[in-house]
Amino acid sequence: MARSSKFLRLDKDVLLEFIYHDQSNPALSTIETDNNGSHIKFLNTVDGDNTASRYLIHELGGDVVNFTVDISGIYIAVNNFSRRELQLQNGKTYEFDLSNLATPSNFSINAGGSFTIIGSKAIYVPNTNGTYSYSYNDNGITYNGGSIIVSDKANPLFATPDQETGNTIKTGTGEVGRYYAVEYNTDGTKFALLDNTLGYLATQNWNGSTSISNEVIASNLVNYDTIRLHLRTGFSFSNRGYEGFLFQVKAKRNSGVYNYFTSLAYLNYSNYELQNPTPFVLGGVAFSKFIEVKVPSLVDMYDNTLNLDFEEAFFGTQDTQDALNPTSNYEIVFKLIDSVYEVNNVKYVDAAEVLLVTLAQEDEYQDISAVIEEAADGDYFKIYGLKDGSIDNFARYVNLRHQTSGDDITVFHDIEVLEQSGNTFNQTSNVTYAQVDNLDKPILFRPIIQSANIANSFLINYTLRIYNETDNTQIVKQASLIYKKPSKYAKRMIQLNNVLATTKVYNKIASTAASSSINNFVNSIRPSVGETKYVPVAVNTTNINVSSTNVQLDGANVTALNNMTYYGMGQGSITLSKVSDNFIKFRIAQLEADTLKEVSLVNAEQIELILKSGNIEQIIYADPTFPNVDMGKGEVLFKIDKSVATRFDQPDANIASDTFYINIKNGSTSSMLYHGNVNII
Description:
By secondary structure, the chain is mainly beta. It is built from 4 helices and 45 strands. The relative contact order is 0.09.
């Protein structure tokens, strides 16, 4: 079963999302229980009696955030992002895996704390707020790194260890204020809060374990499902007269006794919620933060025994009275806290209002799935839901819920498009379609890829949401598709050339007045009358002439820094600076008789600039998004980082002369339009 989510409203300020892990890839939801993972501890409610109710508490073996370092071209990549800015927390420990680097000892962080390298791992503990940088050099080559910003708070992506379950106690100075709640009385209205000192366990009111230690799990692994408690934007429990809330997840033994996977208290001064990088609106309510906690997967205790070792340690041997009931589900308890008070350095809370919810141990809607596929009869995608592998069954399922249960169902299709440039994906489109009828007909969707000429591929993320407006619950299914031919869905449709003969299209070019701005063509660098020649798949490069200029960007204006003069093949040159990024604009024309005719580049899938010196080569793709660049008139612009110029001025690159090539690519065919010389300053 693929990863899926179920949503349930617990409170006006709290929306529960239960995320069932992907059973086809359990490694994604597995956490070790050793010193590098998350230790598990069992707290008995009756000292020495494992048959009575027990609490599960986690403790990080090492509160360490892990990064992987690699090389991508001339850049340092951290977790697959080139020159990534790291927003780190003062005092936290960060570990960098350098095993992909040829010389790990040459990786460095310039300041801001202690930095040590042991073998292929670097340990960095920042202790001074400020801005720093990481770098790496090898064989005389300095690779471009990124910045490190150290502050008292960090980006959650760089502050939460992968092994964090959210079920740990953290109440010390500077920590997030996460308390663990244990029942004080039998009616469940009063709880004692465990802090870092575990002081309550030493009081006469507690009959359970007086101390807790790390448990040994034979497999050293536990598989988890994930719970997110989404918090309403602007939430305030204090304004509602509450001190926070208490959240528990429990499962039943064969004996009827409950064991608790988590029992957390969130107080008004707690701050262990995370900022959601993708806030959303559900039922007219915006949610922008969430609390995440992981609970051991019930389905993995019986169906595939991945959690068998944990189950027998925490509950009891299978097929005994103390064992987990095979039919047990997740039972959720949510309580608002009325008051908080302290006695002998132990905090207590009163919580009367309660909500009880039961969630199945695996997704009961696993027969529902989301589908995204390219249409066979056109250039678009089909997006729809299935039930038992059929779109008709999906429509019948929703209609039946309308007719028999009174549910008010709306099906939402959330579609996100991300374009890949280098190693990164950038979101360029996000749209939602609502559907209440015709559910047996797919949504027809055609993306517009904004950087089709330079994108390597694009990714479509599709989220199917079956939303019940009656009780504010929803079923969520997800699908994704990576498409490798972005030019097919560019802003301009691909024009097909006649397979028997090359078709020429001629457009008259109006005369323009001379101007120092390259927003207009000047009469001095082009004929007053000429033609536009469309590029066929196989390009005739005879008599190609090119003019070029370094340009300066000022908002939406592009200004030439020198006059543009056309040069024949191999005679032109460009100048690259090592101290600032370079923007080079070319105009490409073809000389026929005595007339220069601009060569349209509109139909080109990709245009690349290749810098070459001996065996050293760098490919840079044209960016069609810059202002005042008209590819229909033979114009193309490249951004060349100063680091590239620096690379081509190294001793090993100065053995041979530096040359540039402009190539045009259509499918598997690549044609050289022009080549010239490169000067480095």
